[in-house]
Automatic annotation (TrEMBL):
The gene is nudJ. The keyword S-adenosyl-L-methionine does not apply. It comes from Roseateles asaccharophilus. Monomer. The lineage of its organism: Bacteria, Pseudomonadati, Pseudomonadota, Betaproteobacteria, Burkholderiales. This is Phosphatase NudJ. Coiled coil: none annotated.
Length: 168
């Protein structure tokens, strides 16, 4: 019998800083309200870059303009109540906004209570209080503040990604 193949859950994140503050979302989770970077699961048929732009728009109503790849991050999450055990691979991009303010009339994703701008000190307080969705929220902020920037084209997508049917 062959072992079950390990399949991490791929997520994308947008790290957006303006005047020393970071754009976050407050979202409902089984553990209560938590703060997160605009982030979510990569969808079939999109590149990680496209996914980060989409997630930022869906969760904050802001149009994200990626400027650099921030990094690739792994984190394991275990939910006590259900026994769920998931390893996440986060692909994080950093950049700015196409315009100042949200797109008028655009509703936020289900489960997102609000978006907010927070200082690193406020995010550290939320971390210390156990209010961050993942340790990767803080890690991405640290890497961004340290000046980590990688080229956007570091991740390449083959054309087969965009084909609805793969050829035999």
């Amino acid at each position: 019998m062959s072992p079950q193949r390990f399949k991490p859950s791929v997520t994308v994140a947008a790290i957006i800083e303006r005047e020393g503050r970071y754009l976050l979302v407050e979202e409902e989770t089984p553990e209560g309200l938590r703060l997160n970077n605009p982030a979510g699961h990569l969808e079939q048929g999109e590149t990680p870059l496209q996914g980060a732009v989409r997630e930022a728009l869906e969760e904050t109503a802001h149009r994200f303009r990626p400027e650099a790849l921030l990094g690739l991050y792994l984190s394991r999450f275990r939910r006590e109540a259900s026994g769920e055990d998931v390893t996440y691979l986060r692909i994080a991009y950093c950049g700015g906004l196409e315009r100042d303010g949200p797109v008028p009339g655009l509703a936020l994703d289900q489960g997102i209570r609000r978006w907010l701008w927070a200082s690193p000190e406020e995010i550290a307080q939320a971390r210390d209080a156990g209010r961050l969705r993942s340790p990767l929220v803080w890690r991405c902020l640290e890497d961004h503040r340290a000046g980590r920037r990688l080229p956007l084209d570091l991740i390449q997508a083959d054309d087969s990604l965009f084909q609805p049917e793969l050829r035999p």
